[in-house]
Amino acid sequence: MKIIRSTLFILICFLFLSVSFCSFGEGIASEKSGLDVTFVMDYSGSMKNNDPDRTAIGMVKAFIDTVYSADIRIGFVAYNDQILSSSAPVSVRTEEERESLKGLMDSAGYLGNTDIGLGLNYAYGMTGQETGRKRVMVLISDGETDLKGSLTGRTREISDQDLKNVVETFRSEEVPVYTVAFGRYEGNSEALKEISSGTGGENYTVERPEALIEVLYGIFHDNMAYQIQEISNGIYGEGNQSLRLKLDESYIDEMAVLMISPQQVGDTTVFYGEQQIKPVNLTHYSVAKVWEVETDVKEMTIQTHTAKNQELKTYLISYRNLIPVLEIEESVARNQPLSYQIYFKDKSGTVIADESFYKNFIPKLEIYGEGQREKGKKELEISIQNGILAGEMVLPRSGTYYIESRLDDVMESCVFDTVRIQVINTPPAGGLPENIRYNSLTKEKRFALDEYFTDSDGDSLSYELDQSPTDLAEVSLDQGILSVKPLKPGNGVLILKISDGEAAASYTYFISVVPLWKAYWWVLVLAAAVLGAILWKILYKPKPELEVITEEKANNRFQGKMDGYFMCQPENEDEIPPLTFPLYKIRDNRVSIGDLMKNYPGASDRMGLDRIYLIADENRKMILYHSSDSVIMLGSSILCKNLRYSVCFGDIISITSPNGAYDLEIHYISMIQ
Asked: In which element (H, E) is residue 524 found?
């Protein structure tokens, strides 16, 4: 058993890798390919001695009874020196399909010679080449080709040539052949090793028939997520046996209890939670399937009846049906973080975020540059973050990189396709100001180039002056400072080389030095405008507003009359009686109230009546315009200086002197009341 366990461990570590598809960006799931496996079994007469109870056939049948939930199809070829029975790979999901295939295995007995070339060649001919499915051959034999006394007409040479041809075909089509030297192997063991090594498979030795099941599960470890645990292995006395097992694994979809014995397996019941499961009992093995796995059930009990001195091996085979996903971007900018994640999705597509679950896995991610696969691999760091496996790295140089990744635990080895990563170097961006106009009087311009050019990758930039118009301007570059001093009018080109440390780019800057008269034409225009403004101010004097109003109303004449009443005047002066001003007698269209009050010059002067004007308006109205300091009101409104106000028949004009000594009230009335 130590040899078998060592073999199984080596298988788990080094057997062929399953075909997976890596995801990019959006996290498309990586799914294992469907598997077509064909068992090519030696049914020659010598097998009768090595396997008198046909236990080897029973182990293949036990394998069929425990793996049918996986995406696997199983084919079968029974050969000696001819083909005894066969079946192309078929589904084994239903009980009818399984029974049909197992019945085919029992349809022939061990007899005759051995023709390995015939068996493998026939197996190849009946297997398809369906796209997206992986093909595997398992050759089980207890000896090399032996056709002595065969009546088929085939010779050892013909068989060997057939074998050579089909092995070459398997190698070119990447179909591995796993060879099992069974029992007391009679023949050259190197022959089987050459078949397996020539096709990418492995060679195993199985001395006891019941040990074959472990080898079979080892072969398919990379195609099925399972764990095979040995529960018991011993010789029992007659009576009822009870085996208790703790269940530790998470996210299990299905379990199977497999019991193997050289004798008839006795009556057995598997107790799992509230379930009581009766296995399928056959001669040398029985299988009990747990279809409904309950997450809260952590213990299983197996009760079985054994005969006296019965050898019995019991296994628990656990299946997990999760979808592994590698999520990573295909392209990234240089010096920018490249994130990657590995996680599982369940059958409903839900991401499993469970720190305790991912602690059981060993992730391995390696990166290398173009052409550096053999010597330049570097392992990437990855840890559990937010319940899944995640990591991040920065690539400082552009180019093409490749990432190889895999994820291992006791139940499966998930190997993802190699991911091609393109690291892009973004060139520097920016430019100098384009609106600068130079002339011979312009002072030296200095540009700190780092203020005008940037690199999105975060690189430090260096600058080199590649070309400058030396006859047009003095140009210099020192520690990233560009200096430009114009010399004479003309046009020229300045070329800078800008490097981010990995690539350099050219930047062209056009310099135009204009003549002074073109540069300062605006000064001449401004001087002419100022001179014109001065001349206009000197030569053109706008008319006062009062004159403008008078001219506008030149065709109008006053109507009606005004009555004036002094409501207040100084006590030491003679009282001014009520006054009447017949406006209709005035020939001009403008008159000041001072003109009307010329008989009372003292009051007129103190009230500023000479600066209160009335201008005749249309429709027997008047316009009042004043610049007096007295308070003037029209009705209840105070009249401001230098503004037009319309006065109608019935309006009352109140005038109060600045010191309040005089208060005159004027009523504008028509002649006929």
From this structure: helix 521-539
Task: Report how far residue 378's alpha carbon sits from residue 505's, in angstroms, rounded to the nearest whole number.
Answer: 32
3-state secondary structure of 12: helix
CA–CA gap between residue 172 and residue 444 (Å, rounded): 74
Backbone angles phi, psi at 570, to 5 degrees: -60, 145
Say how far apart CA 37 and CA 25 lie, in whole Å: 34
For 261, the token pair is 């014995």
Whole-structure pTM value: 0.60
What is the number of other CB atoms lying within 10 angstroms of the CB of residue 403? 21
CA–CA distance, 80 with 150 (Å, rounded to integer): 10
CA distance 660 to 301: 122
- Rounded Cα–Cα distance for residues 31 and 409 (Å): 17
Cα distances (angstroms) measured from residue 267 to each of 95, 144, 533: 21, 40, 123
Token pair recorded at residue 41:
């079994």
> Token digits for 191?
């022959």
What is the mean pLDDT for each group of 10 consecutive residues in the chain (673 residues)? Answer: 33 31 40 81 90 86 81 92 94 90 91 94 86 87 88 92 95 93 81 92 85 83 76 92 89 89 90 91 84 89 94 89 88 90 89 91 92 87 94 90 89 85 90 81 87 88 87 88 87 89 87 74 81 80 85 92 92 90 92 92 92 93 94 92 93 93 93 67
Contact yes or no for 625/613 (Cβ under 8 A)? yes
Cα distances from 148 to residues 94, 113, 122, 155, 439, in angstroms, run 42, 7, 21, 8, 109
Phi/psi region, residue 106 (left: phi>0; alpha: psi -120 to 50; beta: rest), is: alpha
- The residue written with tokens 């392992």 in the block is 379
Residue 178 token pair = 């796993």
